[in-house]
Design a protein that fits this description.
heterotrimer; A mainly alpha (222); B alpha/beta (255); C mainly alpha (216); A: 222 residues; mainly alpha; MetI-like fold; 9 helices; 78% helix; 0% strand; globular; B: 255 residues; alpha/beta; 4-stranded antiparallel sheet; 10 strands; binds adenosine-5'-triphosphate; binds magnesium ion; transport (chain A); membrane (chain A)
């Protein structure tokens, strides 16, 4: 093999890589929070007494879960302007990621709500609490706790999938990698190193999420 | 609610179906203020259903239910108001696992009575004291024994200052050695004069505190009598047209 | 001249969908074979094998599929491995699939009660026979719902081939969008094509899962 490895361009371009990492984390975190909130709202719709609302929620969830994220990005960035909804690349990226995440989160959260025993809701009702209070104070924490590991894997997947927004030139880590690749042609080194960076990011994200889980969603159990 | 003329609870011709299964058949029942009722009968006779209708965890298809003279509306709109005056204790305790004993007791007063944190804490501690669990206020349900959990559940119900308490087999999920501590707590409550309806097979408890023992079978009230009479008279609770009810529930008279 | 997004254009997308399906199948078969090896290594007695398989799975589950594809397509040729886009994408997707399927099947293998292996060993069966005759059939049954669920992800993952210039359904959509200037309709149609492929698989996976839960 005659190829000479040369990792020096990566050193030259480290500010771009660092900025890419920050941007990847930033859009991912926004999308996680927005996705979870939307996902909870979708779960509420899905359990509402109104059949059309339930149907709407299920259709949305299945439509998002059964189409590629890349097509969703293109739809939002290239398609929606036809309806007068115009976004810059980063806005479109965050929107696509949030909407995508919401459908998966909804599916996961529903499992959590179903895992809370019926007696818990009845005890809340017997105390005279209203539906909103029951979900907020009684169901929420045990439900999230029950599905916290799946939720975390979904969040890590979301962060990894954020690489696709490079396809609409939204600036993040993969976009930075492509840019450096175009200037230096050191594809092997660049994509190997950027892969390792993502690996490190996903490990760190898992650790942070687990710590958050221990702090906010854990309590003694049998 | 100071409508002293009205009975605490009144059921008039109440019937209820689960699908095609009729589980309450034309039930009539009046419970006076301060009265203690023990409800017994074989499994599946509709005891739980009856008391769950009183705070509208179940809805009825026929008849009227009045609590403190206020009728439960068909659409369930006033169910939450009614429930605030009617405490309920479940067989499975149903404590909230992510809250300490104290937090379990503080939730409803804070959300519904809208009282401040300190006042809610003081009230909760008072009732935990009453069930002899003040030392365990900071523990989570998983860190308490079954008997302790059930007493926290009683304190939690008391924190809403209910006029009426409903118990659905409060001791049947407990290990035998814990039954007594819960029954003792209930006897103390009865002595304090609160209106109680209690589904239980603890006939010792019935003898000690009940003003009336009611026997149900197949959704009907077959007998209603003061305990002395109920336990001595030949059982009218076997009608010729009905198979003899399982006598097992009547045996477990422990303390 | 600007064309409208009409039937011929839709047909072009559907022809692209053929390659989507073919690519998914190829990646699933190759990735499945490799994934089985990963699952066996991950549950092997040798500590080194287990460790190697763990790292392998971590790499493919901890990095974006797009970076994996870029690495194979742009990176490997620099080492003298000349790959056309089809080969590169198939290899990339297969490697990706092997990481995920390896982990799914590891779970299946470990869910088979230890007594089964002990009973088979007690009969004097060797490793090959214990695995092929006793463990794997049960493990695959347990992990079938997750396997079908991953197949849905793989079909969606093939869309990334568009970014390397392979004309599957998404790239076909991009091309049609560029000549019709009707991205809204084009990408809706492309989305529906994927939906038509993925929904049956999703429903199947859910049904398998329910059946598995019912049988316990
Ligand atoms: N949610 C429900 N849906 C359908 N049927 C029900 C439901 N809840 C209770 N039933 C039926 O109603 C009847 C009365 O049940 P209920 O729970 O009131 O009996 P119970 O007297 O409390 O019995 P136990 O002593 O076993 O607690 C039973 O036949 C039961 O199967
Ligand atoms: Mg009952």
């Amino acid at each position: 093999m005659s190829y000479q490895f040369d990792f020096s361009p990566l050193l030259t371009y480290w500010p771009e890589l660092a900025a890419g990492i920050v941007q990847t984390l930033r859009i991912s975190c926004i999308a996680m929070v927005a996705g979870l909130v939307l996902g909870i709202a979708l779960t509420a719709l899905r359990m509402s007494p109104s059949r059309p609302l339930r149907w709407l929620a299920v259709s949305y969830i299945e439509l998002v879960r059964n189409t590629p994220f890349l097509v969703q990005i293109f739809f939002i960035f290239f398609g929606l302007p036809a309806l007068g909804l115009r976004f810059d690349a980063t806005q479109a990226a965050v929107l696509a990621m949030s909407l995508n995440c919401s459908a998966y989160a909804a599916e996961i959260v529903r499992g959590g709500v179903q895992a809370v025993p019926k007696g818990q809701v009845e005890a809340g009702r017997a105390l005279g609490l209203g539906t909103a209070d029951i979900y907020r104070f009684i169901v929420f924490r045990p439900a999230i706790r029950a599905i916290y590991p799946s939720l975390c894997s979904q969040f890590v997947l979301l962060m990894l999938n954020s690489s696709l927004v490079a396809a609409i030139s939204a600036e993040e880590l993969t976009y930075a990698a492509q840019m450096i690749d175009n200037r230096t042609f050191r594809s092997f080194e660049i994509f190997a190193v950027v892969g390792l960076l993502y690996l490190a990011l996903s490990q760190c994200l898992s650790l942070v999420l687990a710590a958050i889980g221990r702090a906010y969603f854990s309590y003694p159990s049998k | 609610m100071e409508q002293s003329a009205a009975p605490a609870i009144r059921l008039e011709h109440v019937s209820k179906w689960f699908g095609k299964l009729k589980v309450l058949q034309d039930v009539d029942l009046t419970v006076n203020r301060g009265e203690h009722i023990v409800l017994c009968g074989p499994s599946g006779s509709g005891k739980s259903t009856l008391i769950r209708c009183i705070n509208r965890l179940e809805e009825v298809q026929e008849g009227r239910i009045l609590v403190d003279g206020v009728e439960l509306r068909g659409d369930g709109r006033n169910a939450e108001d009614i429930r605030r005056h009617v405490g309920m204790v479940f067989q499975q305790f149903n404590l909230f696992p992510h809250m300490t004993a104290l937090e379990n007791c503080m939730l409803a007063p804070r959300r519904i009575h809208r009282i401040g944190k300190d006042e809610a804490r003081a009230r909760a501690m008072g009732h935990l004291e009453r069930v002899h669990l003040a030392d365990h206020a900071q523990k989570y349900p998983a860190q308490l024994s079954g008997g302790q959990q059930q007493r926290v559940a009683i304190a939690r119900a008391l924190c809403m200052n209910p006029d009426i308490l409903l118990f659905d087999e409060p001791t049947s999920a407990l290990d035998p050695e814990m039954v007594k501590e819960v029954l003792d707590t209930m006897v103390e409550l009865a002595d304090a004069g609160i209106t109680m309806i209690c589904v239980t097979h603890e006939m010792g408890f019935a003898r000690a505190v009940a003003h009336r023992v009611i026997f149900m079978d197949r959704g009907e009230i077959l007998e209603s009598a003061p305990p002395e009479e109920f336990f001595s008279a030949p059982p009218a609770r076997t009608r010729p047209d009905l198979p003899r009810p399982d006598p097992q529930p009547l045996r477990g008279a422990s303390p | 001249m600007i064309r409208e997004f009409g039937f011929p254009e839709l047909l072009f997308v559907l022809e692209g969908a053929r390659w989507t399906i073919l690519l998914s199948a190829l990646a699933f078969v190759c990735g499945g074979a490799l994934g089985l090896a990963v699952a066996l290594a991950r549950t092997a007695r040798s500590r080194e094998l287990r460790w190697g398989a763990t790292v392998y799975i971590q790499i493919f589950q901890g990095t974006p599929l797009l970076i994996q594809l870029f690495f194979v397509f742009f990176g490997l040729p620099l080492l003298g491995l000349q790959l056309n886009v089809w080969l590169a994408v198939t290899i990339g997707l297969a490697l990706h699939a092997s990481g995920y399927l390896g982990e799914i099947w590891r779970g299946g293998i470990q869910a088979v009660p230890a007594g089964q292996v002990e009973a088979a060993r007690a009969l004097g069966l060797g490793y090959r026979s214990v695995m092929i005759d006793v463990v794997l059939p049960q493990a695959l049954r347990i992990s079938l719902p997750a396997t079908v669920g991953f197949l849905v992800n793989l079909v969606k993952g093939t869309a990334l081939a568009a970014l390397l210039g392979l004309t599957e359904a998404t790239r076909a959509g991009q091309l049609m969008s560029n000549i019709t200037f009707e991205p809204l309709r084009v990408y809706s149609a492309v989305g529906l094509v994927y939906f038509a492929i993925c929904l049956p698989l999703t429903l199947w996976s859910a049904r398998l899962e329910r059946r598995l839960l019912r049988r316990g």
